[in-house]
TrEMBL record, chain A:
EC number assigned by the record: 4.2.1.84
GO MF annotation, one: nitrile hydratase activity
Location of the region described as Disordered in the Swiss-Prot/TrEMBL record: 1-20, 100-122
EC supergroup of this enzyme: lyase
SUPFAM superfamilies: Electron transport accessory proteins (SSF50090)
Organism: Nonomuraea maritima
Residue ranges occupied by any Nitrile hydratase beta subunit-like N-terminal domain in the UniProt entry: 1-108
Function, in words: NHase catalyzes the hydration of various nitrile compounds to the corresponding amides.
Family to which this protein belongs: Belongs to the nitrile hydratase subunit beta family.
Known catalytic reactions: an aliphatic primary amide = an aliphatic nitrile + H2O
Domain of life: Bacteria
The entry's keywords: Lyase
Name recorded for this polypeptide: Nitrile hydratase subunit beta
Residues in Nitrile hydratase beta subunit domain copies: 126-222
TrEMBL record, chain B:
Alphabetical list of Gene3D superfamilies matching this protein: Nitrile hydratase alpha /Thiocyanate hydrolase gamma
EC number of the protein: 4.2.1.84
Residues annotated as domain Nitrile hydratase alpha/Thiocyanate hydrolase gamma: 10-191
Family statement: Belongs to the nitrile hydratase subunit alpha family.
Name this polypeptide is given: nitrile hydratase
Single Gene Ontology MF annotation: nitrile hydratase activity
Residues bound to Fe(3+): 101, 104-106
The UniProt record lists the keyword Iron: yes
InterPro entries xref list: CN_Hdrase_a/SCN_Hdrase_g_sf, CN_Hdrtase_a/SCN_Hdrlase_g, CN_Hdrtase_asu/SCN_Hdrlase_gsu, Nitrile_hydratase_asu
Keywords from the named record: Iron, Lyase, Metal-binding
Length: 225, 196
Protein backbone atom coordinates (compact mmCIF):
# COMPACT_ATOMS: atom_id res chain seq x y z
CA UNK A 1 0.00 0.00 0.00
CA UNK A 2 1.31 3.46 -0.84
CA UNK A 3 1.73 5.54 2.25
CA UNK A 4 3.99 7.04 4.84
CA UNK A 5 5.14 3.68 6.20
CA UNK A 6 7.01 2.64 3.03
CA UNK A 7 10.01 4.71 3.99
CA UNK A 8 12.94 3.08 2.14
CA UNK A 9 14.81 5.64 0.06
CA UNK A 10 12.56 8.58 0.95
CA UNK A 11 14.25 11.87 1.72
CA UNK A 12 13.94 14.91 3.93
CA UNK A 13 14.27 13.13 7.27
CA UNK A 14 17.42 14.83 8.46
CA UNK A 15 20.25 13.19 10.40
CA UNK A 16 20.05 9.76 12.02
CA UNK A 17 20.08 9.55 15.78
CA UNK A 18 23.40 8.21 17.09
CA UNK A 19 23.03 5.28 19.50
CA UNK A 20 22.89 6.12 23.20
CA UNK A 21 24.47 3.82 25.71
CA UNK A 22 21.97 2.10 28.00
CA UNK A 23 18.87 3.55 26.41
CA UNK A 24 15.79 2.24 28.30
CA UNK A 25 13.60 -0.25 26.46
CA UNK A 26 10.56 1.92 27.23
CA UNK A 27 11.61 5.58 27.67
CA UNK A 28 8.18 6.51 29.04
CA UNK A 29 5.79 4.37 31.06
CA UNK A 30 3.01 4.69 28.53
CA UNK A 31 5.35 3.24 25.89
CA UNK A 32 5.45 -0.03 27.83
CA UNK A 33 1.68 -0.18 28.33
CA UNK A 34 1.01 0.68 24.66
CA UNK A 35 3.43 -2.00 23.48
CA UNK A 36 1.88 -4.77 25.56
CA UNK A 37 -1.70 -3.65 24.89
CA UNK A 38 -1.05 -3.68 21.14
CA UNK A 39 0.26 -7.24 21.18
CA UNK A 40 -2.86 -8.25 23.11
CA UNK A 41 -5.09 -6.19 20.81
CA UNK A 42 -4.06 -8.35 17.85
CA UNK A 43 -5.65 -11.33 19.57
CA UNK A 44 -8.60 -9.44 21.13
CA UNK A 45 -9.53 -8.08 17.70
CA UNK A 46 -9.24 -11.56 16.14
CA UNK A 47 -6.56 -10.40 13.71
CA UNK A 48 -2.93 -11.29 12.97
CA UNK A 49 0.52 -9.68 12.70
CA UNK A 50 0.07 -8.92 9.00
CA UNK A 51 -3.23 -7.16 9.70
CA UNK A 52 -1.44 -5.23 12.45
CA UNK A 53 1.26 -4.08 10.04
CA UNK A 54 -1.47 -3.07 7.61
CA UNK A 55 -3.19 -1.09 10.36
CA UNK A 56 0.09 0.81 10.84
CA UNK A 57 0.22 1.46 7.09
CA UNK A 58 -3.29 2.91 7.06
CA UNK A 59 -2.50 5.58 9.65
CA UNK A 60 -2.31 9.11 8.32
CA UNK A 61 0.96 11.00 8.50
CA UNK A 62 0.30 12.55 11.90
CA UNK A 63 -0.99 9.38 13.49
CA UNK A 64 2.10 7.58 12.17
CA UNK A 65 4.76 10.12 13.14
CA UNK A 66 3.66 12.47 15.90
CA UNK A 67 4.01 10.17 18.91
CA UNK A 68 6.83 8.03 17.60
CA UNK A 69 7.03 4.26 17.40
CA UNK A 70 4.84 3.51 20.41
CA UNK A 71 2.37 6.19 19.36
CA UNK A 72 1.81 4.51 16.03
CA UNK A 73 1.46 1.15 17.77
CA UNK A 74 -1.21 2.66 20.02
CA UNK A 75 -3.03 4.13 17.03
CA UNK A 76 -2.84 0.86 15.08
CA UNK A 77 -4.17 -1.03 18.10
CA UNK A 78 -7.14 1.31 18.26
CA UNK A 79 -7.70 0.90 14.50
CA UNK A 80 -7.72 -2.91 14.74
CA UNK A 81 -10.11 -2.81 17.68
CA UNK A 82 -12.52 -0.45 15.91
CA UNK A 83 -12.25 -2.46 12.67
CA UNK A 84 -13.39 -5.49 14.64
CA UNK A 85 -16.04 -3.40 16.43
CA UNK A 86 -14.59 -4.24 19.83
CA UNK A 87 -14.38 -0.52 20.51
CA UNK A 88 -16.54 2.23 19.05
CA UNK A 89 -14.79 4.86 16.91
CA UNK A 90 -13.81 7.71 19.21
CA UNK A 91 -14.15 5.62 22.38
CA UNK A 92 -10.49 5.92 23.32
CA UNK A 93 -10.39 9.69 22.82
CA UNK A 94 -13.65 10.12 24.72
CA UNK A 95 -12.38 8.10 27.70
CA UNK A 96 -9.09 10.02 27.62
CA UNK A 97 -11.03 13.29 27.81
CA UNK A 98 -13.02 11.98 30.75
CA UNK A 99 -9.74 11.02 32.42
CA UNK A 100 -8.58 14.62 32.20
CA UNK A 101 -11.75 15.89 33.78
CA UNK A 102 -14.05 16.68 30.87
CA UNK A 103 -17.69 15.77 31.25
CA UNK A 104 -18.58 14.29 27.91
CA UNK A 105 -20.61 11.30 26.84
CA UNK A 106 -18.83 8.11 25.84
CA UNK A 107 -20.06 6.01 22.92
CA UNK A 108 -21.67 2.70 23.84
CA UNK A 109 -19.72 -0.50 23.17
CA UNK A 110 -20.65 -1.84 19.73
CA UNK A 111 -21.52 -5.43 18.88
CA UNK A 112 -18.20 -7.14 18.02
CA UNK A 113 -17.63 -8.07 14.38
CA UNK A 114 -14.37 -9.96 14.21
CA UNK A 115 -13.08 -11.24 10.88
CA UNK A 116 -13.89 -14.80 9.81
CA UNK A 117 -10.33 -15.97 10.41
CA UNK A 118 -8.36 -18.61 12.23
CA UNK A 119 -4.67 -19.38 11.78
CA UNK A 120 -3.96 -22.90 10.50
CA UNK A 121 -0.72 -23.17 12.46
CA UNK A 122 1.55 -21.11 14.67
CA UNK A 123 3.87 -18.61 13.06
CA UNK A 124 4.32 -17.83 9.40
CA UNK A 125 6.38 -20.74 8.03
CA UNK A 126 4.56 -23.34 5.96
CA UNK A 127 5.40 -26.28 3.69
CA UNK A 128 4.63 -26.13 -0.01
CA UNK A 129 4.67 -29.07 -2.41
CA UNK A 130 5.71 -27.20 -5.53
CA UNK A 131 9.44 -26.62 -5.99
CA UNK A 132 10.84 -23.12 -5.68
CA UNK A 133 10.34 -21.19 -8.91
CA UNK A 134 13.74 -19.50 -8.76
CA UNK A 135 17.20 -20.75 -7.90
CA UNK A 136 20.22 -19.21 -6.23
CA UNK A 137 22.18 -17.25 -8.80
CA UNK A 138 19.17 -16.63 -11.02
CA UNK A 139 18.42 -13.07 -12.11
CA UNK A 140 14.91 -11.95 -11.11
CA UNK A 141 12.92 -8.75 -11.35
CA UNK A 142 10.51 -7.39 -8.74
CA UNK A 143 7.14 -6.77 -10.35
CA UNK A 144 6.11 -3.19 -10.87
CA UNK A 145 2.98 -3.57 -8.78
CA UNK A 146 1.40 -1.54 -6.01
CA UNK A 147 -1.47 -3.36 -4.32
CA UNK A 148 -4.06 -1.19 -2.58
CA UNK A 149 -3.88 -3.49 0.42
CA UNK A 150 -0.99 -4.87 2.41
CA UNK A 151 2.22 -5.97 0.76
CA UNK A 152 5.83 -6.47 1.79
CA UNK A 153 7.11 -5.39 -1.63
CA UNK A 154 8.91 -2.20 -0.73
CA UNK A 155 8.29 0.60 -3.24
CA UNK A 156 11.97 1.29 -3.88
CA UNK A 157 12.50 -2.26 -5.19
CA UNK A 158 9.58 -2.35 -7.65
CA UNK A 159 10.60 -2.97 -11.24
CA UNK A 160 14.26 -3.55 -10.39
CA UNK A 161 16.35 -6.64 -11.11
CA UNK A 162 18.71 -8.50 -8.81
CA UNK A 163 20.17 -11.93 -8.19
CA UNK A 164 18.71 -14.61 -5.94
CA UNK A 165 21.17 -14.95 -3.06
CA UNK A 166 19.19 -17.50 -1.04
CA UNK A 167 15.93 -19.41 -1.06
CA UNK A 168 14.33 -18.98 2.35
CA UNK A 169 11.68 -21.25 3.89
CA UNK A 170 8.19 -20.99 2.43
CA UNK A 171 5.83 -18.79 4.38
CA UNK A 172 2.28 -17.54 4.24
CA UNK A 173 1.78 -14.48 2.04
CA UNK A 174 1.20 -11.29 4.05
CA UNK A 175 -0.68 -9.65 1.17
CA UNK A 176 -3.64 -12.01 1.54
CA UNK A 177 -3.17 -13.05 5.16
CA UNK A 178 -3.53 -9.44 6.32
CA UNK A 179 -6.99 -9.35 4.75
CA UNK A 180 -8.05 -12.84 5.91
CA UNK A 181 -8.17 -13.98 2.29
CA UNK A 182 -6.00 -17.06 2.74
CA UNK A 183 -2.43 -18.02 3.47
CA UNK A 184 -1.13 -18.64 -0.07
CA UNK A 185 2.12 -20.16 1.21
CA UNK A 186 5.07 -19.66 -1.11
CA UNK A 187 8.83 -19.52 -1.15
CA UNK A 188 10.62 -16.39 -0.04
CA UNK A 189 13.81 -15.27 -1.79
CA UNK A 190 16.66 -13.14 -0.55
CA UNK A 191 17.40 -11.06 -3.63
CA UNK A 192 20.64 -9.07 -3.86
CA UNK A 193 20.53 -5.72 -5.67
CA UNK A 194 23.35 -3.48 -6.77
CA UNK A 195 22.81 0.03 -5.38
CA UNK A 196 23.38 1.52 -8.84
CA UNK A 197 20.31 -0.38 -10.08
CA UNK A 198 18.16 1.09 -7.33
CA UNK A 199 19.29 4.67 -6.83
CA UNK A 200 20.15 7.66 -9.01
CA UNK A 201 23.65 9.00 -8.47
CA UNK A 202 23.94 12.32 -6.68
CA UNK A 203 22.75 13.71 -3.38
CA UNK A 204 21.11 11.34 -0.97
CA UNK A 205 22.96 8.34 -2.38
CA UNK A 206 26.38 6.99 -1.40
CA UNK A 207 28.95 7.66 -4.12
CA UNK A 208 30.48 4.22 -3.61
CA UNK A 209 28.31 1.33 -4.82
CA UNK A 210 27.01 -1.13 -2.26
CA UNK A 211 24.83 -4.22 -2.16
CA UNK A 212 21.37 -4.48 -0.69
CA UNK A 213 19.31 -7.59 0.00
CA UNK A 214 15.56 -7.81 0.51
CA UNK A 215 13.32 -10.79 1.08
CA UNK A 216 10.71 -11.08 -1.66
CA UNK A 217 7.80 -13.50 -1.83
CA UNK A 218 7.62 -15.61 -4.98
CA UNK A 219 4.50 -13.80 -6.26
CA UNK A 220 6.43 -10.50 -6.20
CA UNK A 221 8.99 -11.81 -8.69
CA UNK A 222 9.34 -12.67 -12.35
CA UNK A 223 12.25 -13.98 -14.33
CA UNK A 224 14.53 -11.32 -15.67
CA UNK A 225 15.15 -12.16 -19.30
CA UNK B 1 -15.12 22.47 33.60
CA UNK B 2 -13.25 24.37 30.94
CA UNK B 3 -13.45 22.69 27.59
CA UNK B 4 -10.16 21.68 26.01
CA UNK B 5 -10.12 21.10 22.30
CA UNK B 6 -6.66 19.60 22.15
CA UNK B 7 -6.37 15.89 21.41
CA UNK B 8 -5.51 14.02 24.57
CA UNK B 9 -1.88 12.93 24.86
CA UNK B 10 -0.68 9.49 23.84
CA UNK B 11 -0.10 8.76 27.52
CA UNK B 12 -3.71 9.57 28.38
CA UNK B 13 -5.04 7.64 25.38
CA UNK B 14 -2.99 4.62 26.41
CA UNK B 15 -4.49 4.76 29.87
CA UNK B 16 -7.94 5.11 28.33
CA UNK B 17 -7.39 2.12 26.05
CA UNK B 18 -6.25 -0.05 28.93
CA UNK B 19 -9.22 0.98 31.07
CA UNK B 20 -11.71 0.22 28.30
CA UNK B 21 -10.27 -3.22 27.63
CA UNK B 22 -9.81 -4.18 31.28
CA UNK B 23 -13.29 -3.12 32.40
CA UNK B 24 -14.79 -5.31 29.69
CA UNK B 25 -12.69 -8.27 30.79
CA UNK B 26 -10.83 -8.39 27.47
CA UNK B 27 -7.38 -7.77 28.92
CA UNK B 28 -5.85 -8.71 32.26
CA UNK B 29 -3.51 -6.00 33.57
CA UNK B 30 -1.28 -8.68 35.11
CA UNK B 31 -0.72 -10.07 31.62
CA UNK B 32 0.20 -6.57 30.44
CA UNK B 33 2.68 -6.35 33.32
CA UNK B 34 4.11 -9.73 32.37
CA UNK B 35 4.76 -8.78 28.75
CA UNK B 36 6.47 -5.57 29.85
CA UNK B 37 8.62 -7.43 32.33
CA UNK B 38 9.67 -9.98 29.72
CA UNK B 39 11.11 -7.33 27.45
CA UNK B 40 12.55 -5.16 30.23
CA UNK B 41 14.19 -7.93 32.20
CA UNK B 42 14.37 -11.26 30.38
CA UNK B 43 14.92 -10.72 26.69
CA UNK B 44 17.56 -8.27 25.53
CA UNK B 45 20.89 -7.82 23.75
CA UNK B 46 22.71 -9.79 26.43
CA UNK B 47 21.32 -12.87 24.68
CA UNK B 48 23.07 -11.89 21.47
CA UNK B 49 26.27 -11.00 23.31
CA UNK B 50 26.41 -14.56 24.67
CA UNK B 51 25.90 -15.96 21.16
CA UNK B 52 28.70 -13.84 19.73
CA UNK B 53 31.10 -14.62 22.59
CA UNK B 54 30.43 -18.33 22.09
CA UNK B 55 30.96 -18.07 18.33
CA UNK B 56 34.27 -16.29 18.89
CA UNK B 57 35.42 -18.93 21.39
CA UNK B 58 34.12 -22.09 19.71
CA UNK B 59 34.85 -22.45 15.96
CA UNK B 60 32.38 -25.29 15.59
CA UNK B 61 29.56 -23.24 17.12
CA UNK B 62 30.52 -20.38 14.81
CA UNK B 63 30.18 -22.69 11.81
CA UNK B 64 26.79 -23.93 12.99
CA UNK B 65 25.62 -20.38 13.67
CA UNK B 66 26.47 -19.22 10.15
CA UNK B 67 24.98 -22.36 8.57
CA UNK B 68 21.67 -22.36 10.45
CA UNK B 69 21.17 -19.38 12.72
CA UNK B 70 17.77 -20.42 14.06
CA UNK B 71 19.02 -23.86 15.15
CA UNK B 72 22.24 -22.54 16.70
CA UNK B 73 20.38 -19.83 18.59
CA UNK B 74 17.92 -22.50 19.66
CA UNK B 75 20.77 -24.45 21.26
CA UNK B 76 21.05 -21.55 23.73
CA UNK B 77 17.30 -21.21 24.13
CA UNK B 78 16.99 -17.99 22.16
CA UNK B 79 13.77 -18.81 20.34
CA UNK B 80 10.39 -17.10 20.31
CA UNK B 81 8.32 -14.29 18.89
CA UNK B 82 9.89 -12.55 15.90
CA UNK B 83 12.63 -15.19 15.69
CA UNK B 84 11.09 -17.90 13.51
CA UNK B 85 13.93 -17.84 11.03
CA UNK B 86 17.13 -16.00 11.88
CA UNK B 87 20.06 -15.75 9.49
CA UNK B 88 23.45 -14.81 10.89
CA UNK B 89 25.95 -12.99 8.68
CA UNK B 90 29.57 -12.29 9.56
CA UNK B 91 31.35 -8.98 9.19
CA UNK B 92 34.94 -9.27 7.95
CA UNK B 93 37.77 -7.00 6.89
CA UNK B 94 36.23 -6.84 3.45
CA UNK B 95 32.46 -7.11 4.07
CA UNK B 96 30.23 -5.11 6.39
CA UNK B 97 26.59 -6.07 6.91
CA UNK B 98 24.04 -3.68 8.39
CA UNK B 99 20.40 -4.49 9.13
CA UNK B 100 17.20 -2.45 8.80
CA UNK B 101 13.45 -2.86 8.33
CA UNK B 102 12.35 -0.04 6.05
CA UNK B 103 8.69 -1.05 6.14
CA UNK B 104 8.10 -1.11 9.89
CA UNK B 105 11.07 -1.95 12.30
CA UNK B 106 11.22 -5.75 12.27
CA UNK B 107 14.02 -6.91 14.55
CA UNK B 108 15.22 -10.30 15.93
CA UNK B 109 13.51 -9.99 19.31
CA UNK B 110 14.56 -13.32 20.90
CA UNK B 111 18.24 -12.58 20.51
CA UNK B 112 18.40 -8.78 20.77
CA UNK B 113 15.22 -7.78 22.62
CA UNK B 114 13.23 -4.79 21.38
CA UNK B 115 14.84 -2.37 18.92
CA UNK B 116 16.48 0.88 20.05
CA UNK B 117 14.91 4.22 19.15
CA UNK B 118 17.33 5.08 16.33
CA UNK B 119 16.48 1.84 14.49
CA UNK B 120 12.79 2.76 14.49
CA UNK B 121 13.25 6.36 13.39
CA UNK B 122 12.20 7.38 9.87
CA UNK B 123 15.69 8.79 9.20
CA UNK B 124 17.40 5.41 9.67
CA UNK B 125 14.70 3.40 7.93
CA UNK B 126 14.69 5.75 4.95
CA UNK B 127 18.39 6.47 4.54
CA UNK B 128 20.40 3.36 5.37
CA UNK B 129 19.18 1.57 2.22
CA UNK B 130 20.23 4.52 0.07
CA UNK B 131 23.36 5.97 1.70
CA UNK B 132 24.61 3.41 4.23
CA UNK B 133 28.18 4.67 4.31
CA UNK B 134 27.02 8.20 5.18
CA UNK B 135 24.54 6.89 7.77
CA UNK B 136 27.17 4.72 9.44
CA UNK B 137 29.53 7.68 9.53
CA UNK B 138 26.87 9.83 11.23
CA UNK B 139 26.48 7.05 13.77
CA UNK B 140 30.21 7.03 14.45
CA UNK B 141 31.44 4.22 12.21
CA UNK B 142 33.74 5.09 9.32
CA UNK B 143 34.56 2.18 7.05
CA UNK B 144 37.57 1.97 4.74
CA UNK B 145 36.85 2.54 1.05
CA UNK B 146 37.62 -1.05 0.14
CA UNK B 147 35.04 -2.50 2.54
CA UNK B 148 31.92 -3.69 0.74
CA UNK B 149 28.67 -2.79 2.48
CA UNK B 150 25.66 -5.12 2.34
CA UNK B 151 22.42 -3.67 3.69
CA UNK B 152 19.84 -6.24 4.82
CA UNK B 153 16.25 -4.98 4.60
CA UNK B 154 14.05 -7.31 6.68
CA UNK B 155 10.94 -7.38 4.53
CA UNK B 156 9.66 -10.87 5.47
CA UNK B 157 9.71 -12.96 8.66
CA UNK B 158 13.41 -13.72 8.09
CA UNK B 159 15.42 -11.87 10.72
CA UNK B 160 19.07 -10.89 10.43
CA UNK B 161 21.81 -10.89 13.05
CA UNK B 162 25.32 -9.61 12.46
CA UNK B 163 28.26 -11.59 13.83
CA UNK B 164 30.76 -8.77 14.41
CA UNK B 165 34.51 -9.21 14.12
CA UNK B 166 36.37 -10.09 17.27
CA UNK B 167 38.60 -7.11 18.11
CA UNK B 168 42.36 -7.51 18.16
CA UNK B 169 43.85 -7.73 21.65
CA UNK B 170 41.14 -10.02 23.05
CA UNK B 171 42.86 -13.31 22.29
CA UNK B 172 43.50 -14.02 25.96
CA UNK B 173 39.92 -13.43 27.14
CA UNK B 174 37.56 -16.22 28.12
CA UNK B 175 34.11 -16.56 26.60
CA UNK B 176 32.64 -15.07 29.78
CA UNK B 177 35.00 -12.10 29.58
CA UNK B 178 34.06 -11.46 25.96
CA UNK B 179 30.31 -11.15 26.63
CA UNK B 180 30.28 -7.59 28.07
CA UNK B 181 32.27 -6.29 25.08
CA UNK B 182 29.59 -7.16 22.56
CA UNK B 183 27.18 -4.29 22.00
CA UNK B 184 23.72 -4.35 20.48
CA UNK B 185 24.86 -1.77 17.94
CA UNK B 186 27.56 -4.13 16.66
CA UNK B 187 25.01 -6.94 16.21
CA UNK B 188 22.86 -4.69 14.01
CA UNK B 189 25.91 -3.49 12.15
CA UNK B 190 26.13 0.22 13.04
CA UNK B 191 29.22 -0.20 15.22
CA UNK B 192 32.23 -2.45 15.66
CA UNK B 193 33.14 -4.19 18.88
CA UNK B 194 35.97 -2.42 20.67
CA UNK B 195 38.67 -4.14 22.70
CA UNK B 196 38.51 -3.32 26.42
Amino acid sequence: MEGIADLGGTTGWGPVRPPRRDEPVFPERWNARAFALTLLAIRVSGRNVDAFRHALERLDRNAYLDDGYFGRWLNAAELMLTDSAILAPGAVTARARVLRGEQIPEPPAPKPRKPDYKPTAEGSLRTVDAPAAFAVGERVRAKNMSPTGHTRLAGYVRGHAGVVAAVQPAALLPDTHAHFLGENPQYVYTVCFDSRELWPSGSGTDSRPFKLTVELYESYLEQDS
Amino acid sequence: MTSDDSTPSAALRTEALEQLLVERGLVDPAVVDGIINTYEADIGPLNGAKVVAKAWSDPDYRRRLLEDGTAALGELGFIGTQGEHIVVVENTDKTHNVVVCTLCSCYPWPVLGLPPSWYKDPAYRARVVREPRAVLSEMGLDLDDDVEIIVRDSTSEVRWLVLPQRPAGTEGLTEEQLVPLVTRDAMVGVAKVAAP
